[in-house]
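Intended use. Records like the one below are meant for learning the mapping from a protein sequence to its folded structure. Do not use them to infer anything beyond what is encoded.
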Amino acid sequence: MTHPNSQTPTQHDTNDSTPPANPLFSYIAGLLSPNAPKAEDRKVWSISLHTLVPFFTATNVNGVTRVPADALGAPLRLAHGKDGGVKFSKSGRPQYRVHEAIAKEVTILRANLVADMVGYVTATVETRTEEDKSLVETSQKAAHPLVEKERADLAQAIRARAEAEAAETAPAEAPRPQNGAPQAEDAPSPAPVPVAA
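Structure written out for the chain above:
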């Protein structure tokens, strides 16, 4: 039995910033941990094929997916045009595409991840309403000077560009003679000839 004078901290009477015990919170925290090695190769939705192929091999083993064996063995295929011929880039290199079975599974993976992200936001707003609201307000206030400065910079750049374009399209002024002699319109008018009475 709990002693009547004992107090168990709850979410509302503690200042602990640790998120509530929710598997989704731990899952998202793991996704945001920068512990993955960089890979330079073909990617699908910014995920390396060196990651996707072993991943879908594992999901096949566990009966979660049924990606065809040939797709796992050769995930990249030559791209063909409507005429059936191999497609080439402008530089003359053959173009490749990711096998549609893998691309389809990545699409499902992406949709589920987005759903998890939305669920994470919803859970945070519902369980830590005041903290979430406060951070949104703080973020907006912090960004306000930058937003205003960029608006002013953009307006100035647009004006400068318009003035430069106007100067380029304006008719050129007729050049004056090199010796500095006055042109016809600059020469003094001849004196009037007196008329006899």
